Fold:
Amino acid sequence: MADANDKHLWAVSWDDFQALSVDERASYFMEGEREVHVILAQQFARNRLDALNSLATQVRFIAKSRAGMRFLRDLLSHKRAMLYFTQPSTRTFLSFSAACQILGMTTSSVRDSATSSEFKGESQEDSVRTFSSYFDVIIMRSAEKGLAERMAWVLSNSERAVPIVNAGSGKDQHPTQALLDIYTLQRSFERLGGIDGKHVAFVGDLARGRTVRSLASLLALYDGVKQTFVAPSPLQIGRDVLDFLTKAKVAFELTEDFERVIPKADAIYMTRVQDEWDKTKGESGLYDIRKFWFTAQRLSLLRPDAILMHPLPRRDEIEAAVDRDPRAMYWRQMRNGMWVRAALIAGIFHRDKEIQDYHEQNL
Structure:
C-alpha cells in the first residue's frame, strides 16, 4: 500500500521539480521506505540504511554456499540490467555487474556514447527511453551533473518507468558509494557501538569528490558523529555541504593539520586529487598535497581500533606499504560494494523478504 505522503515524479513538471530543494527532490525517489529510483544520498533514512546493511550481510552469508548461490541466482533471473557508463569506471562498473550476476540478472552495457546512437545525434532522453524498452533497470554513470535525476523524471513520465540507479553523477552525487561506505563503517565498528558517536575525517580533494559529499550526508543520520575535513584551502569541502551539516546540527571542523587529526579519528577517509575536473590543463599540479598523504610512518599515529578508507582508485595519497596493516579497510570496502549493491537491487525488485526468510531458515 502506498504511503499517503508519497510523491510521484509523473505528477510534477521538470521545471517545478528542479526548483525544489535537494531534500524535497529526494522524497520523490521513494515510495514509502522503498526506492523507486536511487539518485540522491538524501533519499535514505536511518532505518533504511540499517535494513540495507542487514540485507547486504544476509546476501554475503547466503552466497558462501553453492545452494545459497543457486537461490540468489534464481531471484532475478527473469530481469535484465543495462549498465550505461559513459564516464570511465572500473570498480563501480564491475561491482554492479557482479551484483547483478549474484542475483541472476542478464546484463548489457554501453560504456562510450560514441558507440551508441548519441553519436548520430540522438538525445540522451531518447537513448535512455530506448534502453527502458529492453531492460528492467538502468544503472548509469555520467560526468554530467544531474543527468541521472533528469532521466529518472523522464522515465517516470513515460509508459515504461523502469528504475534508474545513479552510479555517479558529475561532481555532486555517488549514492551507492556512500551506501557501501556506511556498510564498511558499520561492519568495522559493530563491536564498538556502531557508527553513532564516531569521528570521521575526510582528507584530500574534497571540493570535487562526490563520494565525500554523499557520505557526509548519510553520516548526518547517525547520532553524535563528528566530521572533520582536512584539505588545502582550494580543495576544501563546499559551502553547500557545510550549510547542510549546520542545518542538521552536525559537529564539523575544517583544517589543514592532518597529523593533529589522525590520532583523534575513528575513521580516516582518503581521496585522490580529482584532476579530471580541472578547468585548465595542469591546474591540480598547483596544489602541494604531499602533507596530506598517508605514509607508513603515519600508521603509528593511528589509533589501534581506527580504520583507513579510500573509495579508490588511489595514487600516492596512501603508500602501498600501508596495505599490510589490518586497519587498512579499502580493499574490504571495495568488496562490500558488491554486497550492498546486490542488496539494493534485490530491494528495488521486492526480493528482500525472500532473502531474509532464506537466511533465517538456512543459516
Notes: The chain has two domains: 9-173+336-353, 175-334. The domain at 175-334 is CATH 3.40.50.1370 (Rossmann fold). The two ends are 31 Å apart (CA to CA). The first strand starts at residue 30 and ends at 31.
